[in-house]
Amino acid sequence: QLLFENQQDGDINSCVYYARRFEDFEGLEAYKEQLILKADRGDVFAQNELALCYLDENLISDGAADYDKALQYFQMAAAQGYFRAYYSIGVRYYTGEGVEKNYQIAENYFKRVEAMGYGDAMLYLGKIYKRGDGHIEKNQSVEIGWFKKALEAGRHDDESINQIARDYSDKGNDSEALKYWTLGEEYGYPYCIANLGWAYRWGKGVAVDYIKAGEYFKKAIEKGSGNGYEERNLAELYKNGDGVTCDWAIAKEWYEKAAAKGDEDAIAALKTM
Q: Is 132 left (phi over 0), alpha (psi -120 to 50) or beta?
């Protein structure tokens, strides 16, 4: 807890190298040598920083990350109670990067730092219960609980805010769902923006507005949403003449774009046009 509070306050006077200022050590190798010396003497910040270096292929001479070494030094730092090391080990087991993926082990590490108020860990805990694996079953209520807690701690992403909104929508609380999708739009999250388009197209929490729906679908595409959902909705608007002039040629173009991204409904629609 003390290490956590000190790091939060920016008290890292025991590790001037923490900012990765290679020039102070005449290059990367000299820098890593200093890290190894300090890490092996028990400097927790050096242990964590060295682990990060081993994960970064740009900082390894042969250009390949050394996951075993990284985990070794993360574990050394974690043994001294360093919260960032707990978090990093959790990420390794969540992604399966360098170790066998195991959500249960990841959960254990994330919960150690979640108790300190570390929002990134809460975000991962939500994703664990959304996906589930052989060690932890999917649990939507637990998932949403963690996503909300992460949001309260100031941590969020497109997936987490979108899932909170969808949970409210599934329960018939369209106004609350709309509030979270609007929040996601403020952060520029494409899936939240796309679902605002859905809300306006079908009148979920707002009056039906096909023009706004189309604007949101196009905005989501511009922001990088890539599953074809938005393109298919635009195709349907043009096919039906909802908010735009009915134009099957334009509809076909949007269906083709959606199909190219794997949208099965678009693929089926193209066969019947």
A: left
